[in-house]
Amino acid sequence: LGEGSFAKVKEGLHTITGQKVAIKVIDKKKAKEDAYVSKNMRREGKLLQMIIHPNIIQLYELMETENSYYLVTELCEGGDLMDYICARKYLSEAVTRKFIRQIISAVDYLHRIGILHRDLKIENLLLDKNLNIKLIDFGLSNYTKSELCITQCGSPAYAGNLIFVKF
Predict the structure, then answer these.
(1) Three-state SS string across 60-72, please?
(2) Nearest by Cα to 99 from 141, 135, 150
(3) Does 119 participate in catalysis according to the annotation?
(4) Upper half-sphere CA count for residue 145 (Cβ side, 13 Å)
(5) What is the mean pLDDT of each run of 10 residues along the chain (167 residues)?
(6) pTM for the predicted model, two decimal places
(7) Annotated catalytic residue: which of 80, 119, 128, 137?
(8) What is the distance between the alpha carbons of residues 89 and 111, in angstroms, rounded to a whole number?
């Protein structure tokens, strides 16, 4: 389904529910090459365990072996939002309003429970089979009890020394 620097996402079958699932497989050997990734590899799973929201990817299971770390989540059969927009050239006001409301609802929920996503972009917005937004990729996310998150993340060219404010 997809591939990043340290992980691959594959389609699988959840034997307990009989549903198709997405399985994010993080290569622990590759992750060790990057100190940040190695240190925070399990953070995404821990945060996803705290989250239950209709517009955020649902975590079903976590598994770990000597070489890999697995996150089993719901499968978003509607694809990603960018492909959806490109295929249609434009979105109606009603559809745009629906998507914006779902994105705001998801981000508001995260902030209320103290989670900052820190990687909001169109590539991290998928669609389920009913064309509802699902926010994904919590690899750079952080949990904070304060109003500010002062840890740096992302490319220095983009993030610089910004302080990320929780709204």
Answers:
(1) EEEEECCCEEEEE
(2) 135
(3) yes
(4) 0
(5) 79 88 88 71 88 96 91 92 93 96 96 89 93 90 66 50 48
(6) 0.81
(7) 119
(8) 32
